[in-house]
Specification:
CATH architecture of the largest domain: Alpha-Beta Complex
Radius of gyration: 20 Å
Structural class: alpha/beta
Order of helices and strands: EHEEHEHEHEHEHEHEEEHEHEEHEHE
Helix content: 25-40%
Strand content: 15-25%
CATH superfamily of the largest domain: DHBP synthase
Largest sheet: 11 strands, mixed
Number of helices: 11
Shape: globular
CATH class of the largest domain: Alpha Beta
Length: 329
């Protein structure tokens, strides 16, 4: 079978082929429970460079390395605290990325020139089978152009990267839909660098201490740029209480508006409306596909209704804050 540039349903024989491609230094897109990743052999600097080229990603922007077992942490990291193993045994496989000091032999290409390494075990049967067959670490950032909307289906990967990928493994839609929680354990003080499905309270219950949050960290990691996860169409975020009035004003100024609604009830005149779920888990799963759908309509703007600003919505609000601009008219 020739898999060049094709989406292929991920059965056992295809996964074996994908592992061989990775060993040859080629690129394979793979499903995870969060988003689809663009995978390469993390121990091969030349293969890793292809990720940056395909995505248009700066080479100082570090990658997350996916591994197949908790024991493999020690193949990549040093000075691993005991609490890291507690977290790994509790949340892996799952949407939690842990950052450690790297082993000296880990290529700087995968760490963006830093002395830290980001690791996780994805909770997806296709990804886990691929990791088992491959045997090593797979560097796999989201399989999209840098700063664009993350892909949550194989079709999204093809639309974004096309022939830059040797094989796209189709494992169906991603279960969670937003990227992993990132926790930095490399320093004296543990810090949350990116919110995700694993909450601050869940992490603090294991760590037995309050986590530092925010961007006051010298460690660079995925998703920390001010603009990220963004559609090409200008996108704006609007508070729920002011949403109808903002839409009325926009209607007098702009021809076509796409609407990502949370509670707002659109009128029959409004054509480009996606009604989002009111539960955070379902909203997260739908978010990137909905943004992508509106983006493909080539509208003048996309207006997103602000969801609740509570803990269960933290990851969603983080992504929306980087994909949109807060509107003020």
């Amino acid at each position: 079978m020739s898999a060049n540039n094709h989406i292929v349903m991920a059965d056992e024989s295809v996964i074996v082929e994908a592992a061989l491609l990775l060993k040859q230094g080629r690129l394979v897109a793979l499903p995870t429970e969060t988003v689809y990743g663009l995978g390469a052999d993390a121990s091969n600097p030349e293969a890793v460079k292809q990720i940056f080229s395909a995505k248009g990603r700066p080479e100082n922007h570090p990658l997350i390395v996916h591994i197949g077992s908790v024991e493999q942490i020690h193949d990549w990291a040093v000075n691993v605290p005991d609490v890291a193993l507690q977290l790994a045994n509790l949340f892996w496989p799952g949407p939690l990325t842990l950052i450690f000091k790297k082993r000296p032999e880990v290529p700087m290409a995968v760490t963006g020139g830093q002395d830290t390494i980001a690791l996780r075990i994805p909770n997806n049967p296709v990804a886990l089978s691929l990791l088992k067959d491959f045997g090593g670490g797979i560097a796999a950032p989201s399989a999209n152009r840098f700063k664009h909307i993350s892909p949550t289906s194989a079709k999204h990967v093809l639309e974004e990267l096309g022939s830059a990928v040797d094989l796209i493994l189709d494992g169906g839609p991603c279960l969670l839909g937003v990227e992993s929680t990132i926790l930095d354990l490399s320093g004296e003080h543990y810090r949350l660098l990116r919110p995700g499905h694993i909450s601050v309270s869940e992490l603090e219950a294991v760590l037995k201490t309050k986590l530092s949050t925010g961007n006051a960290s010298s460690v660079r990691t995925s998703g920390m740029m001010a603009v990220h996860y963004a559609p090409l169409t200008p996108a704006y975020l609007c508070a729920s209480e002011g949403f109808p009035e903002t839409l009325d004003k926009l209607a007098k100024m702009i021809k076509t508006v796409g609407i990502l609604a949370y509670k707002y009830q659109p009128s029959s005149k409004q054509e480009h409306v996606i009604d989002m779920p009111e539960q955070s888990a379902e909203y997260a799963q739908s978010l990137y596909a909905a943004l992508r759908e509106l983006d493909q309509l080539k509208l003048d703007i996309i207006l997103v209704e602000q969801p609740p600003e509570t803990e269960s919505w933290r990851a969603i609000n983080d992504r929306l804050g980087k994909a949109t601009v807060l509107i003020d008219i």
